[in-house]
C-alpha cells in the first residue's frame, strides 16, 4: 500500500509492520505477538483475533506493547522513560495520555500519535476522543498534525479545565471527536517534511517551520511548494530552504546568517524586565502569572544571536534575538515590548512550570 506522497505501508501477515518514505527512510517499525489461549497453545492461522502489539519504534522512542499498571493512568504501555495509556493498537479507539510528555525526545510523541492515526484509519475508526488528565496546548498542536477536529472546535475548547483535570487525574473522555488524518513524513537533508494536503510542516536544522510559525515560518509558493523562512518584525530575515509540492528540497538548506546587531550581548535593565513581565503575565494562564513576573524580575535577560529562535532560556537566564531590536525599535518601544512579550511567553511559561514541579 502506498500513500499520496510515495510512503510505503509494509504489511506482514495482514498487519502493518513498517512505514517507509519514498527515500527508503523508515519512520515506524511495528512487531506483533500472537495471543496464547487458555490451553497454552497459540491461536492457529484461521483465528481472526488480531495479535497484540509487541513493540513500536519511531524516531526517538519505542513503545513496549506489554501492559502494566500506573497509579494515575491505569493500564499503560512503557514508552521511553515514561508511560502512555494502553491501546488496542489494531483498532485504536482513544487518544492516549502520556504520563510525562516532557520525558520523551522532541517529536517522538507526535510520531506515535501519527502511527495511531494510521492504524485507526486502516481499521475504519471514524473518530477518537482524548480521555486523559493533560489536555494541553502542546497536545492540541500535535493532534492537529494527524487528526482533524470538528469545524468550530478550537484549542480553547480542548484545553478548557486543563488544570482541574490534571489535579484530579481525570480519565473521562473530552467530548471532541478527532477524525484520523495522518500525515506522510519525508526525510530530507538535516530534517524532514510532513505532507497531507500539500506541505504542512518542516523541521530543518532543528527549527520547526509552520504556516503560522514565528519566527520560523512556512510560506506557500505559487508552484504549490513552500519556503522555509525566518521572519522578524513581519518581514523575512532569512530563507533556509525551498520545498517542492511533493516535499522534496528545491533549494538549500542554508545556514541562517549571523546577526550583527549593535545590541548583541547587552543586558536588559530591571525596569524593562519588570515591564515585559507584566505583559507576559497577562498572556499566560492565571496560576503562572506571579511566577513569570518573578522570573522576569529576578533573572538576567540579554540580546543575543539565536539563529531561528526568537527567545530561549540560557544557562544563567534568558535571551531574545537581537534582530527584534533592529527591526522593531524604529517603530517604537511599545511595539517592541509587545513583540518581546510574545517571544518570551512560551519560554517563561515552560521555565515556570518546570521550576514549580521541582
Q: How would you describe the overall organization of this protein?
A:
The structure is a single chain. With 358 residues, this protein is an alpha+beta fold. It has 8 helices and 23 strands. Helix 5 (270-283) crosses helix 8. The longest helix is centred in the last third of the chain and has 24 residues, at 333-356. The model is unreliable at 37-41 (pLDDT under 50).
Helix/sheet category:
alpha+beta
In total, how many beta strands?
Answer: 23
Task: Going across the biggest sheet, name each strand in turn.
Answer: 1-2-3-4-5
Note the main sheet: 5 strands, antiparallel
Overall pLDDT score? 91
Total helical elements:
8
Distance between termini?
A: 47 Å
**Helix percentage:** 25-40%
Shape: globular
Strand proportion: 25-35%
Question: What's the gyration radius in Å?
Answer: 23 Å
SSE blueprint and pairings:
Blueprint: E1 8-12, E2 15-20, E3 26-33, E4 52-58, E5 61-64, E6 68-70, E7 74-79, E8 82-85, E9 94-95, H1 108-123, E10 129-130, H2 137-144, E11 147-148, H3 155-159, H4 162-168, E12 179-180, E13 184-188, E14 191-196, E15 198-204, E16 207-209, E17 216-220, E18 226-232, E19 235-243, E20 249-251, H5 270-283, H6 289-298, E21 301-304, E22 311-314, E23 317-321, H7 323-328, H8 333-356
Parallel strand pairs: 9-10, 21-23
Antiparallel strand pairs: 1-2, 2-3, 3-4, 4-5, 6-7, 7-8, 11-12, 13-14, 14-15, 15-16, 17-18, 18-19, 19-20, 22-23
Helix pairs in contact: 5-6, 5-8, 6-8
